[in-house]
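Appendix B, Record 12. Input sequence as logged:
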Amino acid sequence: MGNLDGRTAIVTGAGRGIGRAIALKLAAEGAVVVVNDLDPGPASETVLAVKTAGGEAVACAGSITEDGFAEHVVSTAVDTFGGLDIIVNNAGHTWDGVIQKTTDEQWDAIVDVHLKAPFRILRAAQPYFRSHPAEYHRKVVNVTSVVGLSGNAGQVNYSSAKAGVVGLTRTLAKEWGRYAVNVNAVAFGLIRTRLTEAAASAGGAGIEVAGREIKVGMSDEYLTAAERSIPLGRAGSPEEAAGAVYLMCTPEADYITGQVVVCGGGFTG
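Logged structural output:
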């Protein structure tokens, strides 16, 4: 028996890193999971990992920024598993630059994936939540960042988008309380993933998104300095990040809504 038995969850960006850990955690607690990732391969790998552990999941690969994808991922959950109870808006990436070097394309790409796409997914889910009341509280967890609360030099687009996620969260908490849907956000601090651990100083590691090669990662020196600023003295793991999201999905969180929970080892920006 799990805390989330009988629940159906959508987790975006669940092919790797934090998203994968979230999908595995929710499944371990009894939820069936729609696993979204930009790339079909990693999405299928997460589905296989869930099933190997005894859970149930289905892949829904594709870009959350594409027109019509929000409706597609919601219908995948409803058509495959018969319902929708948990939405975790986790997918995203960075494309950094100080304001004078940030292009319109750079701004739009980051705002689209971190703010517009979650807005679209939640808009697509609203008719189902309205017309299919449940005997329990449904849960939305939007992933934001400590830089959305405090800002960060060189991340004007990312910081702005993540700040917008907070506004989206608090507004929908007020709109969706009548549907017994709790809407909260988790703001991550420094979590060790491929976006932070890549050896940027050793040749400029990068990821490919929509045909673009985007440099990511931190130098060893920067990562060490960043960890010194964290009261717990280290970066978090994807599993610890997933734990914070899971907490907001549990029945114990039924009377918590419109809140931002910081998962940063004591670092708040």
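The chain has a mean pLDDT of 94.
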